[in-house]
Each structure stands twice: as C-alpha cells, then as structure tokens.
Amino acid sequence: QVQLVESGGRLVQAGGSLRLSCAASGRTFSNYNMGWFRRAPGKEREFVAVIDDSATKTYYGDSVKGRFTISRDNAKKTVYLQMDSLKPEDTAVYYCTADRTGWVEAHAFDYWGQGTQVTVSS
C-alpha cells in the first residue's frame, strides 16, 4: 500500500507560479513511478506529468509542456509539480498517483491521492 497526500493548491493569478507537493508513505517510494493528473469542472481527467522511479525520465502532457516541471526527492518520499506561467485553463483538482509500471494512462496507476485544488484567476 502507498498513501499519497497532496498539498500546495491555492488561488493564483494568471502568469503566476505554484508548486504542488505529494508526500508518500507506505511501501518503498523509490520503486514507484509518480504521476500528476488533473480534472477540471465538467471535463475528463487529464494526464499532466510523470517521472520514473529513479528520476531519470519524465514525460508531460501537451498542454503543460514547457511550463510545468515534475521532480522527486526519494529521501523525502515526495514528488513535486512546479507550475509556471499558469493559465486560467489550468484550473483543476490535481491528483498525485503512484504505480510500479504506470506511465501515462490513468487506469495504469494503482494509488491516488485525494487531490488539491488549483484555481487560476484571469
């Protein structure tokens, strides 16, 4: 079992920056790929970013590429999502996920946090 707790979501103005954190507990954090997904009101869940277990490989959704950066600290069992140049369309609940083999598809991830709300005002 892996427990995930997101934090850092808040109201921010367009063009601003925000860093989300996801603290993990339970099984060995360094064995898991870690991802971020988001769900905006009235929309389907969307892949945001993923990082492999050793932090050597990352991948981003097209809508955030070049603006968001995913990273992890295995010693602290924490994954981060640095969000820059935020846009109103980035408004969503952001979810942290973990899985040994999951990469981009949401259904491939076994563990999910409760989510943290990010609101970007225009």
Written overview of the protein:
The protein is mostly beta strands. The chain is 0% helix and 51% strand. It has no helices and eleven strands. It has strands at residues 2-7, 11-13, 18-26, 33-39, 46-51, 58-60, 68-73, 78-83, 92-99, 111-112, 116-121. The strands form two sheets. Strands 2, 4, 5, 6, 9, 10 and 11 form a seven-stranded mixed sheet that branches. A four-stranded antiparallel sheet has the order 1-3-8-7, with no helix packed on it. It is globular. The N and C termini lie far apart (40 Å).
Helix/sheet category: mainly beta
Q: What percentage of amino acids are in beta strands? A: over 45%
| Radius of gyration over all CA atoms, rounded | 13 Å
Q: Give the helix tally.
A: 0
**Main sheet properties:** 7 strands, mixed
* Helix percentage range: under 10%
Helix-strand string: EEEEEEEEEEE
Nearest-integer average pLDDT: 95
Q: What would you say about this model in short?
A:
With 122 residues, the chain is an all-beta fold.
Q: What would the keywords be for this entry?
A:
mainly beta, 122 residues, four-stranded antiparallel sheet, seven-stranded mixed sheet, globular
Detail the topology: elements first, then pairings.
Layout: E1 2-7, E2 11-13, E3 18-26, E4 33-39, E5 46-51, E6 58-60, E7 68-73, E8 78-83, E9 92-99, E10 111-112, E11 116-121
Parallel strand pairs: 2-11
Antiparallel strand pairs: 1-3, 3-8, 4-5, 4-9, 5-6, 7-8, 9-10, 9-11
